[in-house]
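Tutorial handout. Part one gives the primary structure; part two gives the three-dimensional structure as tokens.
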Amino acid sequence: MRLFPPVPSATAIAIEQILSLCCQDGEEWGLQSRTCSSYNKSLELVPAGLHGLCLSTIEICCSKQHKIYQCTAGQIAARQGLSCSLKGDHSGSEFYTDCCEACKIGLVVGSSANKCSVEPFAFGSPWDEIYEACCNDIKKEGEIILLGGHDEQGLCDQFPTICSQVCENVEGGSYVCKCNPGFELLDDKKTCVPVSDEDNEAVEVKRCGKGFKLNRRTDKCEDVNECETGEATCNPANQVCRNTRGSFLCVDVVLPDIACDAGYAPKDGQCEDVNECLELLDACDREKEHCLNGRGNYSCLPKAVTMCQPGFAYNVSLGVCEDVDECEEEGACDEGYLCVNIEGSYECVAVVKNYPTPPRKKVETCTPGFRRHNDQCVDIDECAADKNACDSNQMCTNEIGGFRCDCKIGFNLDTVTNACVDINECQVNAHECLESQRCDNTIGSYTCIRLQSCGTGYTLNAQTGNCDDDDECALGRHNCKPPFECFNTKGSFRCRQVSRYQPPSTSTTTTTTTTTTTVRPFYQPGPNPYPASRYSSYQPQLPPCGAGFERSSMGACVDIDECATGEAVCGPDQTCKNKKGGYVCVCPPGHMIGRNKRCEDIDECAMHGSKVCQQNSHCINTVGSYRCDCKEGFKNGPNEMICTDVDECKEIPGLCHQRCLNYWGSYRCGCHPGYRLSYNNRTCDDVDECEEYKSANLCVGICENTPGSYACRCPQGYKLGADGRSCIDIDECQTGDVCSGRHDICTNIGGSYRCTTIECPYGYRHDMDRRNRCERTNRYCTVGDMECLRRPHSYSYNFLTIVSNILLPPGGRGLFSLAGPQYFQMIDFDLKLVTVDAAPHVRPVDIHYFGLEKRTNEAQLNLLKSIEGPQDIELELSMNVFQNGELYGTNVAKLFLMISAHEY
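Part two.
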């Protein structure tokens, strides 16, 4: 069973291609030594929703190019003896310094005649490669080129062991090694050795030959064990290293000649399974599939799904494949038989009393994706049997012989990891949030958060998205003081006086815009200023009443109504209102007392800014009041002070070609899948997926664009696969008697078929049991008649169809096997290329394209190289049987290979 991951969506493919182009632009920008953040080229070919991603990609690839440039400049500086400190502000300057220092260290080590190896330390990539390159280069040059002339410390101070005895720094940042008295410098310009004996005579410096090294303690040449030092060049697969004095030997390991079946190899005298997955002999797509090794074979499984061999199920918690007890299923065996579970399968045993009965049969294993039920192979519903067949971000769909994992809505397939990853709808502009809302990404979806405030006196309800009124009285946000109490209103509150004498109409509000002024009579002590005629019962012994009050005939102090007596002084456009102890001059609503104590209009729009009207309207001041005019895209609702959204999609039919999305204050046109919005932002143009995504190979065969989508079709002789994109060859030979001749053989080829008439040679006749074989008319030969013995007993005609440029494993692929009887002493096989008929532009094959693998009584024909098509090839595989050293008989198998030009 081979499962394929779903084809990546057109959006994912477009994003990958667009980001690839953005990266190329970034690299070109970096090659021009420009600042990566200053990229100013046009992005008109990039969709608006991907501008941010494209600019980020450009900056990353530009920075990468700067790093490569600075690293190269650092290596050049190191080789020229310049300082590794880069002056000024340069992009990627840290790579200049690190690459320069790594190269400098490599030059020092290389000039010291040491090995250019980073073991046991390691800088990491790319510093290790730079270190080894500089080290090896100076060893090849054979001269000292040491750097760091501008560094504060000399090389002798930085590398104390660079010389064996004395190190002296010289100008130009280099150094020179010297020796103590009585020693001389060797050719490596680093090592010092004694030069004279006690008689002060010259002493020859002792040198050791190849395979030996000098022991300076004993002054003797000792053998080097190349097998331990790793200098030996033996092949560990089939050779053993043995040390000798001054050299080594590679001894071949002789293994017994064992003939093993395909998928097995001889090891330690026996056949062991070949792990094709470990040895990379498989043909699995490692990016999309897992290679699962089996006994003598292997299988390729999709990475997104964990599969087990037939008869086993995957245990998610343990991470292993466990045997399935088929006997637990109802009807596993027919009536009268007992079900016995075995590993990977089950057996049905007849139930007979009094005497044992051997098992009825052993159920054969069905192909992967099917299970045995009542002697039949039925499809396994993997989605129902294994809840973890697909991961949590995928939907499982059962198919005949397998199943499919598709990404859920809000997820997209990552072609590298083969996992479904979340789509950030907010980032790729695939959301439907309004302009007044903020898009927040969630796993598999997104949410729209309102940005506009609700205004004073209201609070946003996050659950409903509505503005709820604040009860200032309950929340304690009012400024009412006794004898007034708080009374809540929509968006505000009022202070209402607690008095049975005070009518509700005299209550005041904190939100009123009327400005009043109070004029109270000024009380002057001394004689009563009011006329005596008003006080008929004036009692001078009582104290005078307060300002704004007078005594009545009863001696009590009562309020003076200054508005009625005409004592009040108010402007011509003001209204006088009496109050206890005085009076007030009130301006009309929407006015306040200004200069010269006259009423002036209040500009509510200038005084309160955006608080008097909603954000979707403009404030217009009027005499004594104001009005709120709705902005474009809004209209007045039942309340003239509130603007409601205009649903352009409902009120203007045909506004958009396909989809119309209304949002707060405006609208947006959209298109169905497979279409894109044109430049007028209203009509939709069909996307030609076949042309736009032709590099993605949407169809294996022929891609045809359709309105809003595309369709795949196949050439004649092929049919469309279940995935809707691959082409499967039609086997015309299975559809009926397409070949009319009596001795015709039908051979299916790519996209067609071929009828071949078998004509037996002279002296041969058609075999009644096998249509593809001609047997000799006279089957017997007299003793010693070699000519008769050399004539083949039979000719078998075998037709094989192979697609061109087929992928082959390293060891080739088996095509045909010819086996002989096992009771003969010796059987020899021979292969011969008879004819080759290739097209003019096709390279014809030769005998080296094939290999003959001989065994005791069997031979297998292997294809070693891929063949171009179209071409027809005729081969003859002869089998010669010997008994007692003499030829007993010969059989010939004729092989006709038809190489198709198609690669479907």
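Part three, for discussion. The CA atoms of residues 437 and 604 lie 29 Å apart. The chain has a mean pLDDT of 77.
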